[in-house]
Amino acid sequence: MSYAGWIIFTASLVGFSCGLIGVFLILRKTAMMADAISHTVLLGIVVAFLITGELSGVYMVIGGIVAGIVTTYLVQLLRSLDVQHDASMGIVFTTLFAIGVILIATKAGNAHLDVQHALMGEITFIPFHTTTLPFIGDVPVAVVLLAVISVVVLLLIVVFYKEWKLTSFDPALAASLGIPVTLMHYLFMSLVSVTTVASFDAVGAIMVVAMLITPAAAAYLWTDRLAVMLVLSSSFGIFSAVIGYYIAQWLDTSISGSMAFATGIVFIISFLFAPTHGIVQKYLFVKRETTTS
Amino acid sequence: MWSILLSSNTQWVLLSTMILGIAAGMVGCIAYFKRQNLMSDALSHAALPGVVIAFILFAEKQLYVLIIGAAVSALCGALFIQAVSTSTRISEDASMGMVLAVFYGLGIMLLTIANRMVSGNQSGLVSFIYGQAAAMVRSDMYTMILLALAVVFILFLLLKEWKVYLFDGGFAKGIGLSVRGMDLLYIGILVTTIVIGIQAVGVILMAALMITPAVSARYWTKTFAMMLLLSALFGGISGAVGTLITALWSGLPTGPFIVVVASSLFIFSLLFGKEKGIVLRFIEQSRQRKTIEAREVG
Amino acid sequence: MRDIVLQVNHLAAAYRKNTVLHDVNFTVRAGSLTGIVGPNGAGKSTLIKTLLQLHPALSGEIRFYQTTYQKAKDKIGYVPQRGSVDWDFPTTALDVVTMGLYRKIGWLKWPRAKHKAKAYEALEKMGMADYANRQISQLSGGQQQRVFLARALVQDADMYFMDEPLVGVDAATERAIMAILKELKKAGKTVLVVHHDLQTVSEYFDHVMLLNRTVINYGKTEVVFTKENIAKTYGGNMRWMGEEEQNVVHSVK
User: Fold this and answer.
1) What is the 3-state secondary structure (H, E, C) of B187-199?
2) In whole angstroms, what is the distance from residue A94 CA to residue B256 CA?
């Protein structure tokens, strides 16, 4: 595949898996957990680096998952101590992120780890860093990682589809039916962190947040069916990745920034023109009602 | 080592981060009661495109120019959050997340373009975005201190109005207080504090300076005025001590240390706070259990 | 004593810093239809949640069918307050009812046609068949409550806990729900309902529990539901009169 092809493919995998997960983030009203986890993952990666001395995929993923679970746990802990939910997120993620930044500055200064990189990613280098797979040939490492994670995400969502639906809609009933609601919550947050870590190196924290929240929010305006929302959201994610790439080419600017921006364009279009929930439709509807009555 | 502390520049940096902490702590209380703790996070990210556009247009790193750009852009973000969360079924936190990420993405796009267009030194811009209090020049500090003092002044002057506005909007309307006006004022001081704070602690950690002191203060008092004072105190201490640490070990980023100090104060409050602190709560609970057991036996 | 289906001894529960429930004792017999009444903050919802282990108990013992809740879980159905879920959730009425069958369907399996048919049947029983494929946000408050009831019906439990099912519903829905509750009772099921309208208690329930942080009185409605006991629960005659007036206003709405 060509250089551009690999970049688009990498970003599409991010868009696909984030799009799926984002739907449940939105429906569980924990969208900002995406922001929190995408930042604390940095600490996980730094700690993994300090322990193992290398910046390889596996350690990064493990470090990231641990960071995600720790974040989720701490936020839940503060919540159970009567701290407002969004305040708990704010305190936990800024603290862990600050510790991460301090560790980078004091202990890991010479490693290929810096805050700016973590936030924006370096998608342009993805195609150069390859590994050889049987039957397929040379494939960028990030693509392998992201492909595996996309499959895992898809599988877990399909297999536990009805449990995700019930625990998101009515956790009290779910608990009384014997579904382990807390365990499902941690599993879900682990999925968020795995996806974030895998996407991290390629596109950076901020684009992960954009990809997790915006396509799902846009899809929420188009449909009243959960299954349709999942399909739409992941498609929007992929679409934004492709469009973003070409915007970046056209303006000769940051690819991941453009992709984040492209999710915004998709949302604005949905916000304006989606049937029943778009504001143009709402406006016309109100107009028609007032003229007929 | 102490000579660094005695240098007048360090003293000025110390003063400005302290006053910033005070202002942020107080504004954070208002955000806390409006249940918009993460608004500061969203808006500090949303400020980025404005900063870069101002930089491109005027091709210089004048703090007040960047601040105006940041403020305009953050206000657009606030407007967008308001529009989406009131006119669709998308919740406020999702709207904040979108604004945060999309605006930031746009900012990064513009920043990359700016780097290409404006030849010469743009490292000042990067330190502005990621926060480096030590890199501030004297005139920046004057601007910061002046604006932070203005925010504190507005909060004190309208203390009873804020109280009514936060606890009972309907009543506020009844006594002729313009809720809309207060909304605007709230967004105004929130944005002002954020944009002056970005330079000292950075886009990402600005939220901590707003959220953490307010929540910490909650563990010590029940009255609003006292909470404002304590939050200001915690914010001020965080700003000053964080800056002090980085001044003594030069080269370290200021923002993260300010945040870690604020978080330590929070953990202390959470444990030992007079209102609902964990230790007190634990004692209370075991006492409850004992009385229940005693009642059952008796 | 085989017909004792729920036995609670010395139950206590706290909400945040305050003890909400203390020394709660009662036994429920099979086939009874109980209304749980008490002033605001009396701990009615907390009681149900504590019984169902959705809220931690400080102390005390709870026995369902002479065994623990975990073992009796299959026999117990729960209808949360309508306001406890997000009605903008992208799903249909039929889908919500099918959720009641998730335990029967089991892990890793998808609902099949027979499950959907059963859910549809329950909707039909609640007079909601025409709305089966409606998005749930497009339903009125009464219709949403009927969907919740239908979901409880498909669970096919022996004992039901319902948290304020009659709040904010129209008169027709109130009648439909009460008809179903009487039917459940006739089928030998046990039903406990958190209720807020004192005026309808005698008409609706054969047993009543007067609750104010502890059980003031529990038993057959005609024996227990006296003016004195109500006054005791609501803290004095004056308060009770006020409460009654509130309820009048409420039902007019």
Assistant:
1) HHHHHHHHHHHHH
2) 8
User: pLDDT grade, residue C128 (50/70/90)?
Assistant: very high
Name which of C54, C80, C90 is nearest A223 (Cβ-Cβ).
Answer: C90
Contacts of A48 (CB under 8 A, 6+ apart): A59, A60, A62, A63, A64
Q: Is the pLDDT of residue C31 over 80?
A: yes
| Range B61-87 average pLDDT | 90
Q: From the CA of B3, how many Å to the nearest CA of chain A?
A: 23
Instruction: Compute the distance between CA of residue C42 and CA of residue C20 in angstroms, rounded to an integer.
Output: 7
Q: pLDDT tens digit string along C135-162?
A: 998 999 999 999 999 999 998 899 999 9
Question: Residue A229's closest chain C neighbor by CA?
Answer: C90
Look up tokens 């870069």; give the residue.
B52
Q: Show residues of chain B in contact with C14, CB under 8 Å.
A: 285, 288
B78 pLDDT more than 90: yes
* CB-CB contact of B57 with B237 (8 Å): no
Residues B106, B112, B116, B118: what is their CA dihedral angle, to the nearest 10 degrees? 70
Q: Which domains does chain B possess?
A: 2-297 (1.10.3470.10)
B275, B218 contact by CB (below 8 A): yes
Indicate which CATH number applies to the domain containing C116. Answer: 3.40.50.300
Question: Cβ of C22 under 8 Å from any chain B Cβ?
Answer: yes
Q: What is the mean pLDDT of residues C13-25?
A: 81
Q: What is the pTM of this model?
A: 0.88
Segment C12-18 mean pLDDT: 76
- C58 in contact with B, Cβ within 8 Å: yes
On the question of pLDDT at B172 being above 80, the answer is: no
Out of A102, A213, A277, name the one closest to residue B97 (CB): A213
Count of A–B CB contacts within 8 Å? 193
Judge whether A188 is closer than 8 Å to chain B, CB to CB.
Answer: no
Q: Is any Cβ of chain B less than 8 angstroms from the Cβ of A31?
A: yes
Q: B290 touching C, CB under 8 A?
A: no
Domain count of the fold of chain C: 1
Assigned CATH topology for domain A3-213 = ABC transporter involved in vitamin B12 uptake, BtuC (1.10.3470)
Residue-range definition of the domain harbouring residue C13: 4-252
